[in-house]
Design a protein that fits this description.
The complex is a heterodimer of chains A (89) and B (303). With 89 residues, chain A is an all-beta fold. In chain A, 0% of the residues lie in helices and 56% in strands. Chain A has a single domain, classed as Carboxypeptidase-like, regulatory domain (Immunoglobulin-like). Classes of the chains: A mainly beta (89), B alpha+beta (303).
Chain lengths: 89, 303
């Protein structure tokens, strides 16, 4: 098990449409941040939710894409977990 | 007898195995059954078409994708698509080499679903990023070897020209540098498919090349980015931005979902992977370089 330099840093979020309804199966990826980011994408759960760990404190751009639209949100993670809501459309 | 000790005697460290300058090349790639896309020197023919189209146009620049001016104040941040976005969609995914690339649907330990890319190096062996087969999230139910991976070679949207194969956890491979140490320089892995699907699709060769051999080469990537329509394959290329002992850096546009893509060179018309794409960075993206240690593992997983 790799040693952690710090407590886990996490972004927890939900992807919704323009009417505020959760979007399951949206493709979520970290598009920008203060460190190199793995180029893997995560699918939101049935309730539109997701969580992902980030490597270091800083500001991140979280991108969500569906075949009918996309959205982006920026969140700063200094410690622990930060929440984000992304509207796609 | 007095020892002759010369305090000025020069010394130097022994060369690290990864620093070897002996080039290694796998067997020639196999193109499989069916059509083969043409190359145009160091790039795919699809790239040459883009150059011709750009040269023929005389229009105002498209500024719709420019980043907000505020970003200039707050400094660079890790981006994976370097504007302008010149990625090319591949529609003839049933041709080689495109069909040797696969869209991956990954089920992690906690049943979360992830998207990645893999590429065949043999009849049953597909290479991908380490973080596609083993997720680093210590202390959570997500951490560890993923449960399974659905492999969809040559996928084009909802079309699966070669169907899909499910690879169970027991058929996944990686290295302790990734699984135990989460070291990005060892972020690579493989899947051993339960069928010889690679014999139909064909596969890439792979190479561990010295800096001297790699310098000046054009790098190519084709994979499945999540910011494009679902399940579509996209191609891009660039020169080498930098060579590290265990990583290669480039300005090829990529996005989340392309982790695991082959970073390949076209050498006399044959495609050889030289790195495994893994990360987006502030000024360049990067992949795990195929060094002699990586080459040996790929060879063993292939056979």
């Amino acid at each position: 098990m790799p040693a952690r330099i710090h407590d886990p840093l996490r972004i927890r979020g939900v992807v919704v449409d323009a009417q505020g309804r959760p979007v399951p199966g949206a493709r979520v990826a970290l598009g920008a941040g203060p460190a190199a980011l793995p180029d893997i994408a995560l699918l939101t759960d049935d309730d539109g939710s997701f969580w992902v760990e980030v490597p270091t404190p800083g500001e991140y751009a979280v991108l969500a894409s569906t075949d009918s639209g996309s959205g982006e949100a920026r969140v700063t993670v200094n410690s622990g977990e930060q929440s984000v809501r992304i509207v796609v459309g | 007898m007095t020892e002759n000790t010369n305090p000025h005697e020069p010394v130097q460290p022994e060369a690290d195995a990864e620093d070897t300058t002996v080039d290694q090349l796998s067997d020639a790639p196999e193109t499989g059954a069916g059509g083969t896309a043409a190359t145009a020197g160091d790039v795919e023919a699809a790239a040459a078409t883009l150059y011709e189209m750009a040269a023929a146009e005389d229009t105002a620049p498209d500024t719709s994708a420019l980043r907000p001016i505020g970003e200039a104040t707050y400094g660079a941040s890790a981006e994976t698509v370097f504007l302008p976005d010149n990625r090319i969609q591949i529609n003839n995914t049933a041709d080689y080499p495109w069909r040797a690339n696969a869209s991956l649907l990954i089920t992690a330990n906690d049943n979360s679903k992830w998207l990645g890319t893999g590429w065949f190096i043999g009849p049953k062996t597909m290479v991908t990023a380490g973080h596609c087969v083993f997720i680093q999230a210590p202390g959570t139910t997500r951490h560890g070897w993923v449960k399974s991976i659905e492999v969809m070679p040559g996928r084009n949207g909802n079309t699966l020209p070669y169907g899909k194969v499910v690879v169970p956890r027991s058929n996944l491979r990686s290295v302790t540098g990734w699984t135990n140490s989460a070291n990005q320089e060892y972020d690579y892995g493989a899947m051993i498919l339960p069928t010889n699907l690679g014999s139909t699709t064909g596969w890439y060769g792979f190479a561990a090349w010295s800096d001297a051999t790699l310098n000046g080469r054009t790098l190519n990537i084709s994979g499945y980015p999540g910011d494009k329509p679902s399940g579509t394959q996209w191609y891009h290329w660039s020169g080498i931005a930098a060579l590290g002992a265990r990583k290669i850096y480039y300005t090829i546009d990529t996005a989340g979902g392309q982790s695991g893509s082959a970073v390949y060179v076209i050498d006399n018309g044959s495609r050889y992977g030289v790195a495994i794409h893994a990360y987006g960075g502030s000024t360049s993206n990067s992949g795990t370089r195929i060094t002699s240690g990586v080459f040996t593992n790929l060879q063993n997983w292939k056979n």
